[in-house]
Every structure is written in structure tokens, then in C-alpha cells.
UniProtKB/TrEMBL annotation, chain A:
Coiled coil: none annotated. It comes from Mesorhizobium muleiense. It is found in: Cell membrane. The chain crosses the membrane at residues 7-27, 39-59, 65-89, 96-116, 147-169, 190-215, 279-300. Keywords: Cell membrane, Membrane, Transmembrane, Transmembrane helix. The keyword Cell membrane applies. One of its GO terms (molecular function) is transmembrane transporter activity. This is Nucleoside ABC transporter membrane protein. GO terms for cellular component: plasma membrane.
Automatic annotation (TrEMBL), chain B:
The keyword Nucleotide-binding applies. Belongs to the ABC transporter superfamily. This is Nucleoside ABC transporter ATP-binding protein. The keyword Nucleotide-binding applies. PROSITE patterns: ABC_TRANSPORTER_1 (PS00211), ABC_TRANSPORTER_2 (PS50893). Keywords: ATP-binding, Nucleotide-binding. It holds the Pfam family ABC_tran. Residues 6-240, 257-500 form the ABC transporter domain. Coiled coil: none annotated. It comes from the Bacteria. SMART domains: AAA.
Amino acid sequence: MSVVLEQIFQVGFLAAIIRIATPLAFATLGEMFSERAGVLNLGIEGIMLLSAMTGFTATSLSGSLWLGVLAAVLTGALMGAVHALFTVALGLSQHVCGIGVTLFSSGLAYFLYRLIFGQQSVPPSIKSFETLPIPVLSDIPVLGPAVFNQFSLVYMAMAAVPLAAFVLYRTPWGLSVRMVGENPRAADSAGVGVIATRFQAVILGGALMGLAGAFLSMVQFNAFTFGLVSGRGWVAIALVVFGRWDPWRSAGAALLFAFVDALQLRMQASGLGHIPYEAFLMLPFIFTIVAMAVMSRNAVAPSALLKPFRREER
Amino acid sequence: MPAPLIEMRGISKSFGAVMANEAVDLSVAPGEILGLLGENGAGKTTLMNVLFGAYAPDAGEILVEGRPVTINNSADALAAGIGMVHQHFHLAPRLSVLENLLIGIPGKSGRIDRAGGLARLAEIGHQHGLTLDPDLPVSALSIGEQQRLEIVKALFRGARLLILDEPTAVLAPTEVDGLFSALRSMAAQGLGIIFISHKLNEVRALTHRCVVLRHGRVTGRVDAPASTTSSEMARLMCGHEIVPPARGPSTPGAAVLTLDGISTSRHSGMALRDVSLSVRAGEILGIAGVSGNGQRALAEVISGVRAPDAGRMTIAGKSVSRFSPREVQALGLGRIPEDRMTTGLVTNLPLADSMVLPRIGTGAFSRNGLLRPDAIHAFAEEQIKAYDIRCPGPMTRAGALSGGNLQKALLARELAFDPKVLIVSQPTRGLDIGAARFIHEKFLDMRARGCGIVVIGEDLEELLMLCDRIAVMYEGCIVGTLDSADATIARLGLMMTGAEGHS
């Protein structure tokens, strides 16, 4: 085990945590905005995959990485709007629609990818983002190269957390989001458009999920594969609960999960070879289940989560 | 006379075949408190929802200071200076007082204007004596404080007309006084107020003028409520005289329900601390108190839903050991829970199913593990006739019945098996005078037949009329028990605030 402990404090290990946490942080913040407004978005897994595909494709065709990021964000926002159309405007079951969005988006991603790239023996790849060291800060020993010599999307994730907290807790729009998620009737009687606010929150959430997808295909793997997301969306839903619907806690939850995930990767590589590697793969998920079980005892979901709003209904 | 602040002319609104409002005229002048009287279903709330923009009227117009306006939603109403305090508060419990006030208010340079909000809150508090701690979450406020917040919220948005829908239904007597003095202060400063109630004494004490609705139409206008008798107003409301049932003398027998030193731990709401009481056969015991002082826990213990941590309970002389609903029911307890819709019955199933639910496993309704639909149907049909429950039949979805008919159905379900003890919570809340009267008569009937009854309630007039003795609960304890001959509303009200103990 001492081998493992030594590795924790290495630059590479810390950098790995940050890299693993980035897409989770985007996805968790996205899901959090949606749920704070009262809409569970189980479409997250599919939205991430479809956005990863469109981002990769846009970059691959245009050669511009930022155009790819834009495509991914727009895809996420669009699928968020689709989910909101069914669950907010039409008031249908959020569970059923979310699963539907995931199945549809995943299918569409496979289909479009095959249509555009065909069957190739060597999967196409793109030239990824390069790391962008921040002057001065990146010279701090250990922490500097790990945290401040990262990709621009990583810095965006770091900025997104305080920004999300500011928007949610300090702006009138953020208050409206929290109010429509707690008591839509109260928001309505105060003259706040419940339907509009929910649409906006779900679309913003979708855009953040799109960023998560973009990071996976354009930074982490430089390619699109069908198993790209592999449950990260579902994990984000658990992390929102773990983070009690708060931006800071959610980001903390993402970091903790990333730590366990990075740890198991090292354990796979560090010569504990007599244990099948699948056992290590399970670790982060076991951690999630245990953390959920412990933390969700006191967690209180937004009161109006899962409840559609119709005005004339009494 | 100044121009009316608000005028409604010829308002009509129907839901399907039901005329909720028909050609209603109504106006409020600045500085005036208008009472809107009527039984449940008379159309008071519908009329106010039209005024507040929740429903569009089928006909008629609304004028604000002489100018016709169209009010399509609550934002329009707020812009026209109309504020409403709903019967069920529109607050988000986990957000703070200030956040509930600032919702929908544009911020300052993109941020919530906290300083401005605090200043305005302090100003309103100073003007009308309505003070609130801005940073407490709403869930930490008492019901009275939440109502105060709703009033402040309307004033905060610049309301010049304030509508209050049955505001006193949730308050303790002392809180009612505070509300009334705030309302008088607002009227004195030129605000118009519409006060909706079916409590005649309150309307007489507070309002300058009142309008009476029945079946959606204006059936009376009273220009001097203070000098009009309650019975005259009741006649306008109901269309006929209402005589309260008389409680004759009774000779109570042996104790049928005793609680000895019952204490519970806190799960949700107030816990019980060392509660002892006894009810004899042929006696009605009232439990008075401001809601949230342990009444729910008491009802749950007696009905076997919750086991106490300490103490003993007996029903008809037999000790209750396991505290399950089935056990207490087998010992002879009947129960009418506080919330008809959630714990009383299953709203999406046929009425007949709900009427046999507590006894579904007994031989009367099932045999060899199979239901006997014919017996269930026949039982329901019989009770529907006996209690005059207005519904198309036993297969009607229970949730489609009105409150009064549901309460009759629950009463029928319990009384059909001749309980030795009956525990009821808020038996007539939300019922109109006619239905309440029916329920009261049934209770007195059961009393005459030797049933012991526990009535948990907040309506002191009702308790004084029904009960032989009244116990007062405060913070999970019984602080005193009075013979109803010695009890007055003032005295009970004082005990309910914990100010006076008496045993």
C-alpha cells in the first residue's frame, strides 16, 4: 500500500484527479441547475454522448476546437430544450422523458457518427487542446503543474463553480430558479414565469452537460467512441444528491469521486496484479453508493422536483 | 365618498355546468375594510381568483380607480396594486424570509438587491407593526408569522388593495387580535382590504361593510356589520335560520379510554410529554390548542399509528400493548383523521373501497383471502343512504366528493361498527354550516348511546358547544382541563398560549 500512498502526492496523480473531475463537474452543475428548478434530467447520459459526437465532428470537419466546443454546447442546450418541452411545457413524466432523451440521443449519436465517418479500421481522431500554463501560479511546486498547467476547459470548469453559486444565490434569476423548484405556485403568484424559468434552467443545464461531453471527446480521448460516457452521466445524478443541490458541494463531490477513480487507476497499474482489474473498476461506484447512502439521509431535494406545474389546477 | 379603489361589475364565471359566480358587483374604497361572507362553495374564492388573475371571468369587467383593466395573471394584478394572501400560503419553506420577499423583484445591476429589500422590510414593519427576521428560513416561522410574511409580501410589491382569504382559520385567538390591529392600521393609511370569512363575529368586529354571497350570487349587502346581528347575517348566508344543536345532560359511565404518562420522541412535529387523560362512556372530551402543540402526536398514539416511548394506554379497560391500528380498532376505537384526503381515504379508488378499508380483512368483507365485492358494495350503498352522502354511487372515485360528503362517509365507516371510543381531529374544518351541523348531531347522538369521544380542534366555539370537558395542549403537555361550564373563549385562549395553567 505504501506504493499507492507515495503516488497520491505526485503531480501526475493530482493532475489526473483534476482531469477526471472536470467533465463530472460540468455534468453535475448542469444536472443541479435543472433539478433546482424542479426538473430531473435523466437525459444527461445521452446528452453527453450526443454532444461529444457533435463537438468531435465539428472540430474534425472544421479544424477549429472552439467551434467544436460551441457545437457541443448548442447540442446540449437543444436537447435540454427537448426535455423541457416534454416535461415542463407538456408536464409529462420526468423519468420517462429523461430515459427517452437518453435513448434517443445515444441512438442519434451512433447513427450520425456512422453516417459521417463510415466504418473505419482506425477510428478518426483530432488534435486535442494543448495545456495552457498560467504564468506564476504554474510554478508553485506540485500544485502548480497539476492544477495550473491544464486545458482551457479545465479552467472553465474551475470558474463555473463559483459562477454557478453566484448566479444561483445572488441573482434574481437564480432566486427564481430556486423558487420554482421549491414552490412554483409562490413564484407564479409573485409574477415569475414558472414555465419560462424552468425552460431556461433546463437549457442551461443541457449546455453544461454539452461541455462535459465536449471535454470527453476533445480533451480526454481525442476521439469519439460509443462507450465514451460510460455511466458518467448517471454518476453526476448521484453526485448532485451527494452535493445536496449546492454548486460548491457538488463540485466537491465530483472531486472526491475523481480521487477514488484516479486511485483505482493507479492501483490497477501498481502491481497488485493478482486481483482482477475489474475489482478496482468497481471502487468509484461502490464509493458513490456508500456516499449516497450516508449523505442522502439528511439531503432534502427541492420540494417541487418531479412535479409539473399547471396554473388552473387546484 | 372617494372613487372606489377597485370595482367589479357583473362578474360571471362558470366551471362546466356549475355557476361559480353570477353577475357579482363589488367595490372597495380606499381606507375601507370590506367583508366577503359566504358558505363554502358560495363563490368567494373564485371571485377573488378572478380579481387576482388566476381565472378569466366569462363576463363582466374590473375597474381600478375608475379605469377598466384586464387582469390575465398575477403579474397583472400586482401591477394594478392588488395583493392576495391565499388560504394556503404561497411560500417556499426552505428559502429565507427576505428571499421569499424578493422573488420576482428585479435586482440591482444583475444582483439581488439585498440592502434595498432590508430597508423596505424595515419600513413596512415600522408602518404597520409587522416585524420579521429577514434571514430566518420560512420553515422556522410560526403559522401566524408566515401569514404576516404573506401580508408584507403584498405590501412590498406596492399593493393598495389587499385580499385575505379566510386569514383567521389558521390563527390562535391572540394572533387574531394582532392581525386585526395590523389590518386596521393599513386601512387607516388608505389601503383597501377585502376580508373573506365565514366567521360572523369576526366580520362584525372588523369590517366597515360587507357583501354576502350564496350560490355564486350576491344575496345581501350589510352597511353596518357591527350593528347587525349574527343570526341576521347567517340567514343571508344560508338562506334559512341556523339553530345550533343542544347538548343535553348526560350521565357518563366508566372510563373507556385512559392515557397515563404518555411521552413520545420527536419525529415530525411536537412530541408528547407526560400526557394523561381519560374519557368516560357518554362523554365528549375536547382537546384545544394552537395547531402544532402535539395534537397530531396525540391523535397518532391514540389511533395506534405511533407507539409512545413511555406511558400506558387502555381502551375499554384493556391495556394496549403493541400500538397498531388493527389492535386499537379491535379494542373498539374508531378514528377520523385530520386530513381526509391523505390519511382518511384513497382518493383514486372507488368510495366503496375506502369505506371498508380499515376492516377489509374481516369476515364482513373478505373470505378465504378473497374480497367479497357484493358485500362491500352493499355496505357502501347502505351507508350512502343512511348518511345522505351526495354522490352518484359506491363506485364514484372518492376524490370527486365534496369535503362535507367525504366527512360523512368517514363518519359512516367508523360509526357502522359501534365504536366504544371515537377520536376525531378537526371534524368540521372546511365544511359549511349545514354539513358541520350534521356531524355535530351525530357526535351528540353517539354520546347519548354511551360512546366516549375525543375531539381535537382549534375552533373554540365548536368545542364549547360539543364538549363536556376541554383539555388544553401547549408544547406537548396538557396544561389544564376545564369543565365546559367553567370555560370561556378568553380563558381557553389564554391557556393555549401557555400563559395560564389549570388542573
